[in-house]
């Protein structure tokens, strides 16, 4: 007759609970994606974002011209999401379905961090509806560009102008991992901008995080989990992460021209081929 130790039973229960949680998350995500497909069917929505950057094939028929390179456009907004909205490269670990409103979902860094990088912080950092940021968290920063003549400011409204209400839009995406390390990158420097050759430009987007994956998509955010985004966006997302001092992110949240004080929620990954574009 076999005997089972308490530790073996505990481990088995933990595996069972995890499997059930994974199944529940998958079921909830599939239901939301089915609702999105139903709500967009036959309405002419263009390709959507975010997406799996390793899923290269899409069948969405709506075509639009690719936006110019970002150095020929004006930076209009910078914000970030808690966990990566996109999946790919060094951020393919699913955080779970979360609360259904965009928090505690998305994708996180696949690698390991040492204890020193994960040392806890003594105060809340960028606290918002999804809680405050912690060392080890993953964020996806979006540098938004417009073909309109505008100045950087809050929300997507800063990307429009009275003279150009249908500008071309581009988003440069970079995933960062927050560490408790003053020698890591400073987010205030990463978000710094100035006028370069007549265009407002970020000065320090990382150039060593891999060749960006470019594709045609849309705006993101959990408000579009079950409905289509009508805005067309040219995306450029880098596949590798960069490490950022969490305290510098907190300092940025305390005051910036974009009025950003906390992380945004994450839109569910869009997976139906009918709702995504081909990646060349």
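Sequence proposed for the structure above (280 residues):
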């Amino acid at each position: 007759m076999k005997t089972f130790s308490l530790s073996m039973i505990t481990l088995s229960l933990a595996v069972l609970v995890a499997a059930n949680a994974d199944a529940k998350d998958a079921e909830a995500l599939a239901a939301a994606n089915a609702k999105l497909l139903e709500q967009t069917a036959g309405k002419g929505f263009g390709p959507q974002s975010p997406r799996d950057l390793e899923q290269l094939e899409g069948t969405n028929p709506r075509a639009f011209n690719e936006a110019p390179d970002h150095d020929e456009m004006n930076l209009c907004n910078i914000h970030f999401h808690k966990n990566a909205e996109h999946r790919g490269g060094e951020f393919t670990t699913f955080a779970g379905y979360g609360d259904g409103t965009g928090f505690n979902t998305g994708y996180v860094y696949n690698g390991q961090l040492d204890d020193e990088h994960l040392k806890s912080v003594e105060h809340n950092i960028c606290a918002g509806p999804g809680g405050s940021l912690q060392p080890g968290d993953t964020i996806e920063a979006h540098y938004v560009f417009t073909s309109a003549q505008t100045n950087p400011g809050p929300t997507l409204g800063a990307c429009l102008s009275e003279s150009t209400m249908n500008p071309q839009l581009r988003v440069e995406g970079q995933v960062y991992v927050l560490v408790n390390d003053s020698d890591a990158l400073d987010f205030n420097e990463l978000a710094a901008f100035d006028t370069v050759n007549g265009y407002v430009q970020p000065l320090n987007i990382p150039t060593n995080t891999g060749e960006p994956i470019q594709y045609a998509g849309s705006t993101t955010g959990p408000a579009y989990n079950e409905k289509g985004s009508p805005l067309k966006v040219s995306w450029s997302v880098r596949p590798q992460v960069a490490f950022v001092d969490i305290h510098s992110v907190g300092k940025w949240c305390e005051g910036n021209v974009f009025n950003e004080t906390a992380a945004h929620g994450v839109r569910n990954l869009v997976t139906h081929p009918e709702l995504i574009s081909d990646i060349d």
